[in-house]
Amino acid sequence: MLENWCSRTMKKLDYILAGYFGVILLFIYAPIISVIVFSFNEGAGLSLPLTGFSTKWYAKFFSNKAAVTALIESVKLAVATTIVTTILVVITALSFRRGLRFRTPLLYIILLGILTPGVIYGLGAAILYGQVLNTSLSIWTAIPIEVIWTLPFGLILMLARFDPSLATYEQAARTLGANEVQVFKQITLPLISVHVIAVALFSFTLTFGELLRTMFVMKNPPVLPLYVYSWTTNSALTPDFYAIGTFTISISFMLLFIAGLLLFKGSGKKI
Questions:
Q1: Per-residue pLDDT tens for 140-152?
Q2: Close Cβ partners of 238 (under 8 Å, ≥ 6 residues apart)
Q3: 10 Å Cβ neighbour count for 84?
Q4: Which of 15, 56, 133, 241 has its Cβ near the most Cβ atoms within 10 Å?
Q5: Three-state DSSP class for residue 41
Q6: Which of 226, 246, 200 is nearest to 71 (CA)?
C-alpha cells in the first residue's frame, strides 16, 4: 500500500515538474514566437488579432539599402571573428593538452570573456581605443572584442574532444614512426574536425547577433543589431523590424542546429 502511494505521488510530481518546465519554456520562447508571428502580419499594427498573412515586410527589409549594408557588415564581422576564434581555439586547446605552464590561470583569464558583462567590457574597450590608443572605430576594432567573447565558448567545446581515446590514436601513430606534424595532419585534425566546424558555427552565431560589445567599438556602417537598436530608439517599431528579427533568429537556429547535429554524429566517429 505504501509502495502504491509512493508511486502515485511520484507520478503526480512528474506531471507538476513537466508542467513547470513547459511554463518556463513558454516564458522563454514566447517573445521569439511573437516576433516571428508579427513579421508575417499584413498590417502595420503590433496587436492581435492579425489582419492577414504577408511577406511584404521581408521585401521591405531587403529593399532597404541601409539595412542590407548593416547585414553585410554583420556577416563580415562574424566571418572574421570566426576565422580568428577557430584558429586560436585549436592552438590554445593543443597547448593546454601538452602541459602548458600556468594553463589553469590562463584558462580562468580566458573564461573572463564570458563572465564580464558585455556593457562593461564594451565601455572599457571604447575607452582603450579612444583615450589610450587613439584609434578610429571600425570593424577592425570590433573583431578583437568579439574574439574575447567567442573564444571561451569555443575552447570549452574543443577541450571536451581531447579525451583519452584521441591520445591513444596519436600514440599509436607515433609508435609507427609518424612525426608530430604527420600525427596532427593525419590523426588529430581529422578526429577533431567536427568540433572545429562546430566551434566555427558557434562563433559565427554569437558574433552575428551580438549588440552590447559591438555598439561601443564600431561606428558607421553599423552591424545589423546596432542598426536595429539605433533605429528603434528613434522611431516607432514596425513589423519590418520583426522581419529582421525573424531572419536573424532563423540564421542562428540553423547554424546551431547544424553544429549540434555535427557534434551528435561526430561523437561516434571512428578513425
A1: 889 999 999 999 9
A2: 44, 46, 57
A3: 17
A4: 241
A5: strand
A6: 226
The burial class, CB within 10 Å (0-12 / 13-18 / 19+), for 246 is: buried
- Whole-prediction pTM value? 0.81
Going 148 to 203 to 231 to 51, the CA torsion angle's sign is: negative
Given the C-alpha cell 499594427, which residue does it identify?
45
What does the alpha-carbon distance between residue 248 and residue 242 come to, in Å, rounded to a whole number?
10
Residues in the chain, overall count: 271
Separation of alpha carbons 266 and 32, rounded Å: 30
Rounded Cα distance, 263 and 161, in Å? 10
Query: Using the 8-state DSSP alphabet, how is residue 128 labeled?
Result: I
Beta bridge partners of 41: 53
What is the number of other CB atoms lying within 10 angstroms of the CB of residue 172? 13
In whole angstroms, give the CA distance from residue 150 to residue 96. 18
The predicted-structure confidence for 166-185, as pLDDT tens digits, reads as follows 778 878 888 878 777 888 88
Residue 200: pLDDT above 50? yes
Is the sign of the CA dihedral 57, 63, 66, 69 positive or negative? positive
Greater confidence (104 vs 9) lies with: 104
Q: Is the pLDDT of residue 234 over 80?
A: no
pLDDT digits over 78-111, tens only? 999 999 999 999 988 888 877 677 778 888 888 8
Whole-angstrom distance, CA of residue 135 vs CA of residue 143: 14
